[in-house]
Amino acid sequence: MSKQTGRRRHLAGLTAWDRCAVMGVVNVTPDSFSDGGRFFDTTAAIKHGLDLVAEGADLVDVGGESTRPGATRVDEDEELRRVVPVVRGLASEGVTVSVDTMRASVAEQALAAGAALVNDVSGGLADPRMIPVVADAGAPFVVMHWRGLLEGGNVRGTYTDVVTEVVDELHARVEAVLDGGIAPDRIVVDPGLGFSKDAEHDLVLLAHLDRLLALGHPLLVAASRKRFLGRVLAGRPEATPPPARERDAATAAVSALAAHAGAWAVRVHQVRATADAVRVARAVEGAR
Ligand code: PMM
To answer: Is the CB–ligand 1 distance for residue 120 below 6 Å?
Structure first.
């Protein structure tokens, strides 16, 4: 494959950016917006999304349920209460919003409230209604590599060849999504860094983004603040990793690498440095 042929940066129904897009994260979870009542939560989350756009986010990913290892699921009504007003508020301000959910009902109501795409970390596996709902809406769909949840955490991944297995399993999910009626030009793939993967797996996947791009769909890379960056920054295995909030420079470094490799978008908590990183990658690409 030439350096350019694997790149798919256009998704039907969405703006086409001439570089890797920046997806800013708005987690509407109690640990993100800790004090105050729900009104405050919604208002703070909308403001946070607008701040991310002002810092250079091209789209904002709104989620109401933590998918971190060890997190327990929130109930459906609570997820709807957290997510839908924030999606509506941001969409009404002209922001391109993606909804990060494994529930079809949340996707459906978020799309009705103005969301432009659905980001499902289970790739449609967690809720059998997800694919039909997204297909009916004609919305773009992010299919992440996922091996399910165990009580309170991610199923531990065992791989003999992580790249081949992730590519094959994603390919199978893409086929299922196509069979379910989602158009090929509306599918994004994502290796699911940190989901049933340890630091080594994440790094090997990042070193082989060309193999993921060869699936022929736009690629989303979501490395932001993840454990593997903590491990890299700690250096020695016995050293304590820096906390999540001290991993933003490392995240921006991954953003530059992913953009250079041809990713469609990077999903990040802290936007400014990544917005710079993707612009530098674009400039270097333009000078080739
Ligand atoms: N990771 C998280 C949440 N949503 N969505 C996609 N598409 N890919 C990911 O890797 C992903 C995601 C968990 O990260 P957070 O809790 O730090 O937001």
So the answer is: no
